[in-house]
Amino acid sequence: MFDAFINFLRLFKDIPQTDASVIENALIYTKVSEGEVLFEEGNICKEMFFICGGVLRIVAQNEKGNKMTYFFLKENQFCSILNSFNNNIPAAEGIEAACDAELIVLKKQKLVALYEKLPYLKELITGITTQSLLEKIQVRNSYLGEDASTRYSNFLRRQPEIALRVSLSDIASYLGITQQSLSRIRKNMR
Questions:
Q1: Cα(61)–Cα(59) distance, integer angstroms
Q2: Whole-structure pTM value
Q3: What is the dihedral of CA 167, 169, 173, 174, to 10 degrees?
Q4: What is the strand order of the sheet 37-39 is part of?
Q5: Which of 85, 95, 102, 131 is deepest in the core (most CB within 10 A)?
Q6: Are strands 78-79 and 94-97 parallel, antiparallel or unpaired?
Q7: CB 139 within 8 A of CB 52
Q8: Which residues face 31 on adjacent strands?
Q9: Alpha-carbon gap, residue 38 to 80, rounded angstroms
Q10: What is the mean predicted confidence (pLDDT) over 80-104?
Q11: Is 86 helix (H, G, I), strand (E, B) or coil?
């Protein structure tokens, strides 16, 4: 599984095999089940996840106490609560498995040590996570100002690989509509 991570990084920068071995020694591979909480909001995030398979979701509670999905992340994406991870502050969001997933875990302490041994790695991972964050915001903003039916149609068009793997309740939460409304929209589309 570590090969998937190294090969992903090699899409952006040539990484010598000796460096790849150093990186692999700092990684942890794990499998998680749908609904499993990987990080609880209110804590300081000390892990970054690389998704080898499956979908994770960034969640937070709204003013009514309901858990809302802010973002979905899938294969070949990093997932963390970056503000908390980078600045050692409590996070307002959490991370959950939206379906069964295979992950590589990068503990902050080990990642910092890697950055000291391989300085180019910090620039590489920061660049990838920053670009990913910008893309997530762009996707999320594309749903703003649209009616519920249009938001769902856009979601199916822009993120079909996620739509096929996560629960309808998670999709409804992400789109800011009730599950009943989503069921009605889906019925009317057929």
A1: 7
A2: 0.91
A3: 20
A4: 37-39, 94-97, 56-61, 67-73
A5: 95
A6: unpaired
A7: no
A8: 102
A9: 10
A10: 96
A11: helix
Is the pLDDT at 145 greater than 90, yes or no? no
Do strands 101-107 and 47-53 pair parallel, antiparallel, or not at all (unpaired)? Answer: antiparallel
Q: CA Rg, the chain, in Å? A: 18
| Residue 43 binned pLDDT confidence (cut-offs 50, 70, 90) | very high
DSSP-H helix ranges across the chain? 2-10, 17-24, 82-87, 108-117, 119-141, 148-158, 160-163, 168-175, 179-189
Is residue 49 scored above 90 in pLDDT?
yes
- Which amino acid is located at 56 in the chain? L
Is residue 166 packed enough to be buried (19+ CB in 10 Å), middle (13-18) or exposed (0-12)?
buried
**Greatest extent of the chain over all pairs of C-alpha atoms, in Å:** 57
**104 closest CA partner among 13, 16, 35, 32:** 32
Among residues 73, 92, 96, the alpha carbon closest in space to that of 84 is found at 92
- Residue the block writes with tokens 């996620």: 162
